[in-house]
């Protein structure tokens, strides 16, 4: 299938129908930051594009995660497109916007860029099969089919919720929901006995919402979260209007090392290059500034060197323990000895998470020392007894990075499925292409910078890279592009080296694929967005080294 020919004649026209199938140059799966950016940019280049989304609105995780308290952890103006039509007339109300505001932002983006006309909502893709002629057949639930030359998977790192195998879960007589499949009509917390399993970002946010309303709240924690102060505040529209004069410069900054935020630079000195007093001042200043600055913006060896890391942990621990009244509770939430190197599990941002445990209606259960034995109709039974509940919240995370992809029956060459190809671990080239899956690219996927890079920043630089690749293929008359098993193995080996030379490899986290029983332990996100971007750029400069065109 010579997709560039059709593109050159069919751009901006309704798609063609071939053999009863809607046929496009490009099919994109997923309407989050990456998918929408690709739709916008590839359409501009004259490709015929269809974007398919399982949910009934735009925004990816922000559609799905409608649990109480859902809120982004990247501050304004980082978490938005750099496209002027999107930011010029958009005003945020808070420094860290909540889920409802983010959904409205995506509606605004839709209007500004006219995206919806090329999107099928409420359409869940079940299968994507590569054909001998180089095309893909994409099949949605209900049987609707699309044909395309290039398949772009933008399913995000957190689109497949993970529910642990808790014995008796289905017998629970109250209301039970995973945070990522929260019902649209909501669940009232007022006057109810609420239980929350999990203290990752979702758990922290639900706890903050439930504590003031619940008759009683029980939080089941397995591993402490080194949550950091968000330092949330309302934003003044007039101040934002003035700041917009600098937005082009600020957004450009997201793509300039060091770092991928426009206003948090990766530091260039180590924790022991300064005196203890100065180190304390640097930590304190980052703490007061809020957000991720304490995680990534203090010293360059915090995530590399154990002793440096310990200085950050100790600062975090002392600050946190000072907020918790009961020393026994403090020891569970912020132990004297670090449960893992600070920052190697993603720190959540909190507003009053730790103070919630000073309330008389909130109890903390350390399920590492008193494990959950079963879920019963009346509640959760641990080794210590039964905790009676009306509502059970499963804030237990995601089959991160790969789950959203392997949930689809994606079959490449020789009819081999992606799930089978990755059954013993993931191999990709640059986190974008999978050996034996020609004409298929992933964005914000496994083995790319993904969760170590601000979402819109990554969506734009990866999206631009893909756009240039497709244009070059069109110009040079190539109809297929793929990577090789050797390149996949080499990239995996490189990530494995990074796991060993940073502190990430020491911790069981979803970065390390270690949150899902039986999943092969490997680093699934590239922990340095600058270096990652350099790899993409070098690949392109070297004539797309590692890719084979046909
Ligand atoms: O999921 P998680 P999440 N028994 O995997 C526990 C983004 N996000 O949805 O740590 C008992 O972090 C598990 O315990 P442990 C963000 O990138 C962002 O909260 O494995 N407990 C952990 O406490 C985030 O990092 C926002 O020991 C079990 C929790 O469940 C990512 O999504 C908001 C268990 C899962 O935490 C995932 O966050 C929400 C079991 N069998 C999400 N299995 C923002 O603020 C798991 N747990 C932007």
Features:
single chain; 550 residues; alpha/beta; FAD/NAD(P)-binding domain; nine-stranded mixed β-sheet; five-stranded parallel β-sheet; binds 3-acetylpyridine adenine dinucleotide
SSE-based structural type: alpha/beta
Bound molecules: 3-acetylpyridine adenine dinucleotide
Poorly predicted regions are: 7-14
The name of the CATH topology of one domain is FAD/NAD(P)-binding domain
- Could you describe the largest sheet, including whether it forms a barrel? 9 strands, mixed
CATH architecture of one domain: 3-Layer(bba) Sandwich
**DSSP helix fraction:** 25-40%
In percent, how much strand structure appears in the residues? Answer: 15-25%
Number of strands: 21
CATH superfamily of one domain: FAD/NAD(P)-binding domain
Count up the helices: 18
Instruction: Give the CA-based shape.
Output: globular
- What is the arithmetic mean of pLDDT? 96
Note the gap between the termini.
11 Å
- Estimated radius of gyration: 24 Å
Q: What is the CATH class name of one domain?
A: Alpha Beta
SSE topology:
Layout: H1 3-10, E1 16-18, E2 21-29, H2 33-44, E3 49-52, H3 61-64, H4 84-87, H5 99-113, E4 119-120, E5 125-130, E6 136-140, E7 145-153, E8 175-178, E9 193-197, H6 201-210, E10 216-221, E11 228-229, H7 237-243, H8 247-253, H9 276-289, H10 293-296, H11 306-321, H12 327-333, E12 349-350, H13 353-356, E13 362-366, E14 372-376, E15 379-382, E16 385-388, E17 391-394, H14 403-406, E18 409-411, H15 418-421, E19 440-442, H16 455-476, E20 481-483, H17 485-501, H18 529-541, E21 547-549
Parallel strand pairs: 2-3, 2-7, 3-4, 5-18, 7-19, 8-17, 9-10, 9-17, 10-13, 11-12
Antiparallel strand pairs: 1-2, 5-6, 6-7, 14-15, 15-16, 20-21
Bound molecules: 3-acetylpyridine adenine dinucleotide (N01).
Residues 71-73, 158, 164, 179, 197-203, 205, 222-223, 346, 367, 395-398, 451, 510, 515 line the site of 3-acetylpyridine adenine dinucleotide.
């Amino acid at each position: 299938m010579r997709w560039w020919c059709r593109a050159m004649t069919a751009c901006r026209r309704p798609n063609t129908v071939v053999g009863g199938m809607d046929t496009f140059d490009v099919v994109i799966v997923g309407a989050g930051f990456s998918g929408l950016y690709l739709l916008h940019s590839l359409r501009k280049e004259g490709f015929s594009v269809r974007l398919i989304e399982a949910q009934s609105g735009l925004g990816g995780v922000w559609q799905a995660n409608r649990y109480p308290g859902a809120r982004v952890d990247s501050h304004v103006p980082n978490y938005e497109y750099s496209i002027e039509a999107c930011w010029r007339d958009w005003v945020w109300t808070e420094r860290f916007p909540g889920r409802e505001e983010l959904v409205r932002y995506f509606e605004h983006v839709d209007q500004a860029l006219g995206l919806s006309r090329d999107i099928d909502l409420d359409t869940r893709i079940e299968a994507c099969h590569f054909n001998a002629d180089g095309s893909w057949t994409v099949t949605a639930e209900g049987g609707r089919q699309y044909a395309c030359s290039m398949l772009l998977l933008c399913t995000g790192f957190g689109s497949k919720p993970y529910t642990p195998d808790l014995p008796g879960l289905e017998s629970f007589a109250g209301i039970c929901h995973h945070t990522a499949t929260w019902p649209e009509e909501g669940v009232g917390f007022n006057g109810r006995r609420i239980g929350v399993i999990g203290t990752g970002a979702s758990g922290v946010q639900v706890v903050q919402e439930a504590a003031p309303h619940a008759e009683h709240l029980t939080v089941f924690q397995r591993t402490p979260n080194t949550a950091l102060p968000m330092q949330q505040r309302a934003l003044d529209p007039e101040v934002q209007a003035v700041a917009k004069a600098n937005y082009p410069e600020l957004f450009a900054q997201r793509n300039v090392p060091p770092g991928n935020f426009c206003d948090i630079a990766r530091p260039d000195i180590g924790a022991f290059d300064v005196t203890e007093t100065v180190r304390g001042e640097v930590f304190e200043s980052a703490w007061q500034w809020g957000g991720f600055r304490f995680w990534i913006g203090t010293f360059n060896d915090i995530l590399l060197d154990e002793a440096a890391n310990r200085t950050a942990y100790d600062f975090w621990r002392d600050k946190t323990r000072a907020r918790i009244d009961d020393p026994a509770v403090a020891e569970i939430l912020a132990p004297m000895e670090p449960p893992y190197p600070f920052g190697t599990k993603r720190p959540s941002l909190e507003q009053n998470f730790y103070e919630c445990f000073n309330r008389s209606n909130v109890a903390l259960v350390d399920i590492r020392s008193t494990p959950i034995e079963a879920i019963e109709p009346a509640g959760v039974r641990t080794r210590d007894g039964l905790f009676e509940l009306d509502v059970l919240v499963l804030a237990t995370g995601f089959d991160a990075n790969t789950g959203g992809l392997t949930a689809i029956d994606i079959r490449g060459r020789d009819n081999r499925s992606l799930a089978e190809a990755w059954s013993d671990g993931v191999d990709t080239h640059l986190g974008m292409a999978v050996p034996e899956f020609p004409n298929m690219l992933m964005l914000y996927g496994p083995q790319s910078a993904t969760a170590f890079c601000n979402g819109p920043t990554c969506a734009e630089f990866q999206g631009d890279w893909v756009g240039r690749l497709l244009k070059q293929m069109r110009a040079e008359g190539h109809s297929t592009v793929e990577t090789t098993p050797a390149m996949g193995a080499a990239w995996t080996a490189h990530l494995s080296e990074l796991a060993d030379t940073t502190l990430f490899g020491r911790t069981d986290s979803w970065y390390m694929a270690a949150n899902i029983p039986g999943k092969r332990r490997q680093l699934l996100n590239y922990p340095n967005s600058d270096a990652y971007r350099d790899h993409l750029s070098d690949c392109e400069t070297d004539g797309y080294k590692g890719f084979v065109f046909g």
